[in-house]
């Protein structure tokens, strides 16, 4: 290990890639359209790199508008075909089978995720086991519980109230799913699970930087019994394949996770046929620590909330508000944890802090760090990138941040924590500072006083607030953003509802 400014960078260690993953990376990847692996009509390829070594991992096809057309046509045909006749119990069984196959390929998928995204192996394993397969099984168990209602009414024309009204839940139709690079496999599953449970068909477009796990998933889908054309996977660029999918007149709904900027483009593109849109976008999430908080939990909790996935996480707790009485203690504690991370390749055991996804992302984060210095925030630790191979940036903490600084308002999507103290117990005042960004995705409150904790949770303008933890995620907990963090909710019953449409039928006897 080479000691660099207080951070350990594990250098010159050879990573070992399993034969199965090597073979998959070497294979000739194509697009999954109508159940067949089909070459892109563009004949162009996208190179995929390991962000920790900058070495070429593989190449995937660059799907274009014509490929999206073919995939949408296959999904449209499948919507009313065999898939629509399959019983809801069998739909559930197919999703469970897919979850079984993901479990059976757990180590291969975890390894792919580390190589493609850069996350530490333990995190990849944890997220696939605790979120991926659980999510799929959770939504599988909904497939046969999509009940409508009967409604006792007397519409005009019904004599003596002799009528019957009932509602049916129908699949919303052909779904275009566009996902980001920060947790590629989980996002693919998060879109496919509820869409398939609802009886929809899907065209999935993974992020250009991390398409590999979705392609592997495509092979498992082929074995799951899910009919051809129900799931189509088109790798490609957002500006071409993603844009074509969001504009497509025969797509009924887009489910998107990504930046607020692209989310707005998707809304514009959806106008042509007024397709339904759900958006999970960016965040700049506050953590508020009161003087009575259990610091044994709050300090590691805050460090994890910010630096998890190197801060490339929409729920990351990146703005830390701490009462002045405990400000120094909390900051020193978080700094100590940040400096103890072992930075390096995710496949090397013991490394718990990986690279950022790309050179562009590294430059973007470094420019925000420079901006923080210029804006007058105090750099407590970090602030550098590692110059060797890989897109590594040190876990960075700014203290004495002012709410008006750009680093306090804009989403950095990197390992940068912005801390400030408060002196009072005026909850509305604290909330107005905590809420002072265009975002409203996640937040956390740390206090042992149940009144303060719940009042503060009510005042934070976010789709999700956690008390004495940050970003509690479970398939059954609805998740999504207020303000410019998005439209709609994913996970839970509400997440499923977004893939259904209600039909009311009335008969007058
Ligand atoms: P991004 O640039 O918005 O990309 C997301 C996806 O959209 C990618 O697949 C991208 O394709 C595609 N895309 C790009 N331009 C498009 C267009 N014009 N039309 C249709 N699709 C297009 O976001 P990112 O940089 O990958 O991810 C980081 C952002 O995602 C952050 O802001 C983060 O907060 C947000 N995020 C939100 C959540 C949430 O649940 N709220 C979760 C994770 C991430 P390419 O890969 O080819 O660019
Ligand atoms: Mg991009």
SSE blueprint and pairings:
Layout: E1 2-4, E2 7-9, H1 19-26, E3 31-33, E4 36-38, E5 45-49, E6 56-61, H2 65-80, H3 82-85, H4 88-104, H5 106-117, H6 121-140, E7 150-151, E8 163-171, E9 174-178, H7 184-197, E10 201-205, H8 212-223, E11 231-233, H9 238-247, E12 253-257, H10 260-270, E13 276-280, E14 285-289, H11 295-307, E15 317-323, H12 327-340, E16 342-343, H13 359-375, E17 378-381, E18 396-399, H14 406-409, E19 416-422, H15 427-434, E20 439-440, E21 442-446, H16 450-459, E22 464-467, E23 482-483, E24 486-487, H17 492-497, E25 500-508
Parallel strand pairs: 2-16, 9-10, 9-12, 10-11, 12-13, 14-15, 14-21, 15-19, 18-19, 21-22
Antiparallel strand pairs: 1-2, 3-4, 5-6, 7-8, 8-25, 13-24, 17-18, 20-23
Helix pairs in contact: 2-9, 4-6, 5-6, 6-7, 11-12, 15-16
Bound molecules: NADP nicotinamide-adenine-dinucleotide phosphate (NAP) and magnesium ion.
